[in-house]
Amino acid sequence: MIINEIGELLMQHSEPLGLLRTNWAAGRDMSHFRDALTRAQAVAQRLSVRRCLIELDALPDISAYDQAWLATQWIPNSLHLSLKQVVIVLSPRRIYNQQAVEGLLLMARPFIKFDVQFFSQPVAGLRWLTDYSPLVPELLHEWDVAFGPTPPPPGGVQEPRAYYDRP
To answer: Which superkingdom heads the taxonomic lineage of this protein's source (predicted)?
Structure first.
C-alpha cells in the first residue's frame, strides 16, 4: 500500500511482511527533514513495522545539526519501535552520508536490538529484507506504478529484477 501522508517521503507499506519502505522526495529542501522523519516514526509505530527499507541516495548531505538531532532524538525514539531488521540503501558514491549514518549507528550500537544492513540497491535490499518473499514482485510493481521505476545506480549495474516471475 502506498502511503501519501508525508509529502517529503515516498512510502510503501506491506502489512503481511510488516515492511515500510521510504525514500526522500523533497530534493535539496531539508527544511522539513526533522518533521518528516518524526512523522515517519509515528507511521512505523502505528503500523507495527518490523522491517524497514530506508533509501538515502536522494537525501542531500545531512548537516551536523541534523546529525545531532538524529543522535539525540530520532534514533533513541526509533529504539522503541518493534523493528527486527533495517536496510539502509546508500550508493557508494554518497560517501559523506554513508560516514554520517555509520557514525550515528556506531554511537547507538549498544542500544540497537535489530539487525541493520547496508545495500547499494533497493531491489537487492528488499529481497534480502523479505527473505525473497513471493510478494516482492508485487511490491516492486506497486512502487514503479506510484513513483516510477527505480533507476540503476550511477556508474553501476542494476541487479536483475527478479529470479521469479510476477504473477
So the answer is: Bacteria
| Cα–Cα distance measured from residue 161 to residue 98, given in angstroms and rounded to the nearest whole number | 25
Q: In the chain, how many domains are there? A: 1
Residue 153 pLDDT exceeds 70: no
pLDDT higher than 80, residue 66: yes
Mean pLDDT of 109-137: 92
Whether residue 157 lies inside any domain: the answer is no
Instruction: State pTM to two decimals.
Output: 0.86
Domain membership of residue 161 (yes or no) is no
Residue 32 Cα distances to 61, 69, 126, angstroms: 14, 13, 26
Q: Which domain holds residue 67?
A: 2-147
